[in-house]
Amino acid sequence: MANSQSDEQIKNSIMATNEILLGSSTSKSMATMYLNLAHAAGMASQNAVTNQQHLNILGAAAVAAGTSGLLRTGMADQIEKLTPAERLDYLQKLLTLATNPAAGAAAATDGTDSAQSTGTGTGDNTSTTRDSPAKSDGSATSDTTASDSSG
């Protein structure tokens, strides 16, 4: 009888353990599912942010490359038209700006820009019509029209 009573206690303890396990299995499985769902949502958000950052970097690089190409062709045309003395003057002004920005700002306000000066050492009078004052009707005056039309 002592054996049957201990067998009954063992049997009851195993059944109670099974009931606890079966009763808590649904809540544990749901908790695991929610944890996995939260992890997946977090990873999706992190991937979206990373992709957006990479697209922003690519966009900035594309804008920089396009702008560089535009500036390179425009600057190359302007630099080809400068005389060596004008190039040297321009480089000296850049060096002044790089070493002393305050002095460069004061020199820029003087209005002595070599790119806008008219015919300094070039012997070319094409810039005089561009920089000449405008008439009242909006057209630019030219020094060469009066002398050419009279003769």
Q: What this model shows, in words?
A:
This protein has helices at residues 2-81, 84-99, 101-109, 126-131, 143-150. With 151 residues, it is mostly helical. Helix 2 (84-99) crosses helix 3. The chain is rod-shaped, with a radius of gyration of 42 Å. The termini are far apart. Mean pLDDT is 74; it is low at 114-136 and 138-151.
User: What's the number of extended β-strand segments?
Assistant: 0
- Uncertain parts: 114-136, 138-151
Task: Classify the secondary structure makeup into a structural class.
Answer: mainly alpha
Shape descriptor: rod-shaped
**Gap between N and C termini, in Å?**
145 Å
In helices, the fraction of residues equals: over 70%
Taking all Cα atoms into account, the compactness measure Rg is 42 Å
Question: In terms of topology, how is this protein built?
Answer:
Layout: H1 2-81, H2 84-99, H3 101-109, H4 126-131, H5 143-150
Helix pairs in contact: 2-3
